[in-house]
């Protein structure tokens, strides 16, 4: 192993908490952009003369470009320096945000979102890897609580911010807002984030190609399936995507040098379970906003801001409970914490799905969102902390890359699946409104049509509801953490927290 920065130099300069908050700003921004488009969907449909499926691709393209490289960018951070790869990604993301806001066609917006996703993929694994390396294991739960809570809050703040900006300044500002935030985030990260020791790595470019091709074929086939009437070539894409991903896993097992995904990471049961749990959460976050926002604006006649404010109770609970959950994460069995989280989230999402009706009251929706918010607060941060707690430091980047890749894979599949489900239910209940209809762009005046549209959105909401069931089953397999400090045991001194390896 070679190092461009000595451990002693790194330790001298490390101030963990200021570095964490600098990283969280950029991380928050890129996660907001996962969901900020959902509330602007009807406006973009109208302004850019786009279909529902095309606007869903605005998010799916971002998620795909985010998910595919994130496996290799974690390793690149280990090799060339997490700080510098983070700064490079932040620059790409910020410039791509300007491009998104300046586009005048839906096709160019999708292309700009791909570039934006590439920037995000460079940033995310670096944030998690740096946290893993600068905080000692016994205190990592509190740091990951901030990181994980940021993810949870960003997923619901995105639509709220998107609604305010779309109403007040225009849909373009959901992207322009990233420019000043990106510049501030760059300055803070440059000043506060330490340049940690680097590690030699070989790069599995065949693995990158196989994972990228497989994910694209699978996501494209799922999302375009209904629109293309499940033509044989669509089925072939889906089957081909699964086959290529299977080849990817086989190659990872046989690669004797340094595979893109070290399958040995999954020998840690908690890492494996956490990856299932976070892929579920990625799928939920990418899917539930579309039917909810379309229902609110098309059936209730809400403005983008009013529709987005339906998510406010969920965001508040994530913020209020962040500190409590962070303290519990270091001391309580993850099976108990996440089991409660997924159970509560399921109850709240099921309530929400059943409430999507023209006669639903705001207070009823608010209660359901509070329950979902409570549940989510007990999932995001503990999952992140539990996933990486036992990993050797030299695999911090690889572990962070895998973890964030699985979250993004869940987002890609969730986004594609909700597009298919909404189109299918609209086609069955309101023929002609599934893809190119105007039902999502303005209020529906006819009571019968509004009722059927609500039913389609309600049935679509069963997808994220079912995903919470998968997450609940998965977290039952957590084992007790092994780190010092768990269950009240004394924690070791954090003197060597910045060293390249604890093992």
UniProtKB/TrEMBL annotation:
Is the Transmembrane helix keyword given for this protein? yes
Q: Which residues form a coiled coil?
A: none
What topology in the membrane does the UniProt record assign? Multi-pass membrane protein
State which residue ranges cross the membrane.
20-45, 51-72, 84-104, 110-131, 143-161, 173-193, 205-223, 229-251, 272-295, 307-325, 337-356, 362-381, 461-478
What residue stretches are annotated with the Major facilitator superfamily (MFS) profile domain? Answer: 19-483
Superkingdom of this entry's organism? Bacteria
Where in or outside the cell is it found?
Answer: Cell membrane
Q: Which UniProt keywords apply?
A: Cell membrane, Membrane, Transmembrane, Transmembrane helix, Transport
| Annotated PANTHER family | EXPORT PROTEIN (PTHR42718:SF42), MAJOR FACILITATOR SUPERFAMILY MULTIDRUG TRANSPORTER MFSC (PTHR42718)
Protein name per its UniProtKB record: MFS transporter
Organism of origin: Nocardioides panacihumi
